[in-house]
Amino acid sequence: MFTKLAGVAGLLVSLAAAQASTTQRVIPTLSPQVDAAPSLTPTVYDPVAPNAQQCPGYTASNPQNTSSGFTADLTLAGARCQAYGNDVNDLTLEVQYQSKDRLNVKIYPKHITPENSTQYILPSSLVMQPEWDGKTTAGDSDLALTWTNEPTFQFKITRSSNGEELFSTYGHVIVYEDQFLELVTNMVENYNVYGLAENIHDWRLGNNYTQTFWATDSGNTVDGNVYGTFPWYQETRYNAGGNTTSHGVYARNALGQEWLLRENNITYRTLGGSFDLYFLSGQNADGSSSALTTIQQFTQDCVGVPAMQQYWTFGFHQCRWGYENVSVLQSVVAGYRDANIPLECMWNDIDIYDLYRDFTNDPNTYPSPELLAFIASLHANGQHYVPIVDSNIYTPNPDNASDAYAPYERGAALGTFIRDPTTGDFYIGDNWPGFSVWADWLVQSSRDWWTSELAKWYNDTSFDGIWIDLSEPSSFCVGSCGNGRLNENPVHPPFLLPNDPYQANYNYPEGFNVSNATEAASVTSAAASQASYLASHTLLPVPVTTTQGRTEPTPGVKNLNFPPYVLNAVQAGHSLLKGTVAPNATHNDAYNTTEYYMHNLFGYQISNATYQALLAVFPNKRPFTVGRSTFAGSGRFTAHWGGDNTSTWGSMFLSISQALTFMMSGLPMFGADTCGFSGNTDNDLCSRWMSLSAFFPFYRNHNVKATISQEAYRWSSVAEASRRAMSVRYSLLTYMYTLFYYAHTQGDTVMRALAWEFPNDASLAGTYTQFMLGPSLLITPVLVPNVESANGVFPGIGEGTNWYDWYTLQPVVAQAHENVTLSAPITHINVHVRGGAILPLQAPAYTTAETRANPYSLLVALDESGQASGSLYLDDGESLVQEATKLVQFSYTNNCLSTTINGTYHAAPPLANGK
């Protein structure tokens, strides 16, 4: 077993060896000009930027009733404004009462031709578009829309039952330009808004926050744009003297956009497209409304319910960037087995590749016969294997015959790659393997080619699922930097890699200097030595930064790379060009759609293409894909991990908020890189994080090169914490699987905010230091270093809710709203069962298959009146279309347990006992 000291010593030895070298390593790389990034001032911080609310707005006329609502014409109500684009003079307003609980407002250009339609309208063939149910009218809707032309067109959405105002543009103008849309809604005082994933931010978004949506490869940037785009929010109102109310707003638009949450209003801005707004009442049959119902309405009706996952995917997964060869994988598998820590699936990062190229195995370190034998040994033990697939395709050097790369050649022959608009040739950016291209998912030939390549690779790498990375899509240079330079390939990325000289990582979690003072001193010294060397040596060319001012709107012209409205993007200089395929790159569809409109959809499209490809490889088996960049609706075909987080307590804490936003966004198969991806963990943080992540749906440990190893068996405390937490998780696998059945069939959440389950308790509005797994389990993790206790509340106590300790089954004694201090030694995480729950359990074993073969038992936790209920869903755990299923409903009342069974699926394990 490695110890933390051994890990630190290893880093120090590596540094000493590098410093002993008398010659500086020469690293071939891109020129600084190629990596040049423009520097821009985000509009939200630009004091001289135009105020779009000074534009004239629109006047509505010619209203016409339809079977589902009405339409009207909107005409610019004054001189052209040209705030951040060219004003569109004539618009169409379309209002549809689509269902009892959903109202749709569309605003789009009146004059649309097939040639320009994609610049405004997101096609339903690409992203699900909710439709009228064929029967709802304004007279029987939960919602009502009213409008006025005084002084310009404004509208508001209210509840039909009581007139509660949910959304209102009154007092504001609507702005519609070819590269800029703006709409402002008034908000109640101290509003509670949640969602707008993906963000690394507090759970309650607050009223001084800007959410930017521009998918980017920039790690887990706090309060900045990251990988995903889910333009929807849910609002909760704690009404004085009445029940809490909830509603939701979904803006179906995939372009770069920002949501400005301010004290009295929310401003919604996009770089184009259309207004396609869906208002969700959140109402239940009894007229009340709730967050959980609002979320169901969004998931079921707006973006589609999430895919049902294979049973084995709920086991524990292990990965690292830095597993050098198959022997290392074998040693990791053996390490987990020797420590008796359940391991369900081994993963490979880009180490597997031959020269970082997709669909290849390094013949020296991952030869296919050896890798296939390793995977076969996993399968023989009921375990699984998942490799990475990057989103870029290496472009071979035309001057080097030995540099041939068949996946590129096959794709190029089909013309399937995105193109450079200046030359018409393929757009060639840069990524891990060197100059690279990207598939064009708008054409069928690309999707067919992708399926073919994955099927070919499966013959050499018998995977069980696919991990999709860099799907923003990520490019390491600015523009089509490889055009005319392919004879330099393969080029090194324009930055140093973790395993390059003088790139040892000396970051450790907060509190490490307290718990490991001697080692911390050694780390500080080594870090200072490395920093001193780097300060006096240039290992890479210094990138050139250019300055690009805000562009002015020009009639008849669109500036796609530098639109007049500058998003507050986190990439260098806030440039849309940095770190990705340029916005003006073109696709091969009939309209040569530009990446400006498709950027936020690349991850969505590649995940969908991979899902379909896996169906071809494994007919009728549920595909398992895990993607990094996502969009509203991605949950229908992919899971998601939280991206490049850090080994810090803050990152672990914010992973809960990040998870909750995905639970409410129709993508419940979510998990963070446990123990942290970037930086070094320690035994304290990793123990707590392995315990916490055991209650996230997707459970994976993953970290980067040039840091210490962090497999769970490396420290005795982490090993014991993992065994204990996994014992609880694996006991509850059937409960978690049943939660996913309800998520898949009716849009339920899996992890839940306390505020969702206890909606009338205003004190829980911002709480995410605790969360619930389904309706029945309360999880209270330790989120700070060097402590042996955790603080938490027990919602509902004093109002009829009972809580029981999972481990002892003893009832909790606490006062209403009391912040209770709970004992939490380093190997323990507090789990409590809510009274009124019946939980089907199975004795935990080493794999999910072994666990699933064990007898069932029932845990009955009685509520205040001595009753309880629960359910159990059963199927074969893998088929897309089931031959048989079974849903068992349990009820306990009057000291009698009863069941209702629907379905014919036969489960071999018996019901052994209850408690």
From TrEMBL:
<dbReference type="InterPro" id="IPR030459">
    <property type="entry name" value="Glyco_hydro_31_CS"/>
</dbReference>
<protein>
    <recommendedName>
        <fullName>alpha-glucosidase</fullName>
        <ecNumber>3.2.1.20</ecNumber>
    </recommendedName>
</protein>
<dbReference type="InterPro" id="IPR000322">
    <property type="entry name" value="Glyco_hydro_31_TIM"/>
</dbReference>
<dbReference type="Pfam" id="PF21365">
    <property type="entry name" value="Glyco_hydro_31_3rd"/>
</dbReference>
<feature type="domain" description="Glycosyl hydrolase family 31 C-terminal">
    <location>
        <begin position="747"/>
        <end position="839"/>
    </location>
</feature>
<dbReference type="InterPro" id="IPR013780">
    <property type="entry name" value="Glyco_hydro_b"/>
</dbReference>
<dbReference type="InterPro" id="IPR017853">
    <property type="entry name" value="GH"/>
</dbReference>
<dbReference type="Pfam" id="PF01055">
    <property type="entry name" value="Glyco_hydro_31_2nd"/>
</dbReference>
<dbReference type="InterPro" id="IPR011013">
    <property type="entry name" value="Gal_mutarotase_sf_dom"/>
</dbReference>
<keyword id="KW-0378">Hydrolase</keyword>
<keyword id="KW-0326">Glycosidase</keyword>
<dbReference type="InterPro" id="IPR048395">
    <property type="entry name" value="Glyco_hydro_31_C"/>
</dbReference>
<comment type="similarity">
    <text>Belongs to the glycosyl hydrolase 31 family.</text>
</comment>
<feature type="domain" description="Glycoside hydrolase family 31 TIM barrel">
    <location>
        <begin position="306"/>
        <end position="739"/>
    </location>
</feature>
<keyword id="KW-0325">Glycoprotein</keyword>
<feature type="signal peptide">
    <location>
        <begin position="1"/>
        <end position="20"/>
    </location>
</feature>
<keyword id="KW-0732">Signal</keyword>
